[in-house]
TrEMBL record:
Belongs to the SCO1/2 family. It comes from the Bacteria. Signal peptide: none annotated. Keywords: Copper. This is Redoxin domain-containing protein. Pfam families: SCO1-SenC (PF02630). SUPFAM superfamilies: Thioredoxin-like. It comes from Bergeyella cardium. Gene3D superfamilies: Glutaredoxin. CDD domains: SCO (cd02968).
Length: 188
């Protein structure tokens, strides 16, 4: 009887082991605690993207100059990596104009650009949280009129732990380096 009691006690204690939460690298964007709203009005945290390679760009939907080009680049990257399983990658547009870019506006923007599968997210947050992410990405932006912004043109690739792996700066449809990095990160 005493042996049975000890066996049950040991078994019970071993099943109560606390697992240590996996720690993220210090440079992970997933360490940001900001809350975001996607095109479906769902609330998420960037850490919800952990385990996926993330291709991210900061834009605003009413832009008539650089943002359409950045959006076209994101589309080209997605087409050139369409063989990557949906569960391994996310293409993320982040609004620098969260007051105007509501979930309905973001959803319409994705639809107009034919970005309608589960690989695509359009996010917005508060002005402060947006500025914090922009600083992490080295994206500079400034509102120059009630409907216009001046901003950096940067597409970023994050590894599965949210560590910045690659950035492409400037406007060109040459996405070879970005595609190469996406493929490298999804194979890890």
């Amino acid at each position: 009887m005493r042996f049975l009691f000890i066996f049950i006690l040991v078994l019970g204690l071993s099943s109560c082991k606390q697992t240590k939460p996996e720690t993220l690298p210090q440079s992970s964007v997933y360490n940001l605690s900001s809350e975001w709203e996607n095109q479906n009005a769902d609330k998420i945290h960037l850490a919800d993207l952990k385990g996926k390679v993330v291709v991210m760009v900061m834009i605003y939907t009413s832009c008539k100059t650089a943002c359409p080009q950045l959006t076209a680049e994101m589309g080209k990257i997605a087409r050139e990596t369409e063989d990557i399983p949906q569960e391994d990658i996310r293409y993320v547009l982040v609004s620098i104009d969260p007051e105007h870019d509501t979930p309905e506006v973001m959803k319409d923007y994705l639809k107009r650009n034919k970005f309608q599968n589960e690989k695509w997210l359009f996010l917005r947050s508060s002005i402060e949280e947006t500025r914090e992410l922009a600083n992490v990405l080295a994206v500079k932006y400034k509102q120059i009129s009630p409907i216009d912004f001046s901003h950096s043109n940067i597409i970023s690739v994050f590894d599965k732990n949210g560590v910045l792996a690659f950035q492409k700066e400037g406007l060109s449809l040459d996405v070879e380096g970005t595609v190469k990095e996406v493929r490298k990160q999804t194979k890890k």
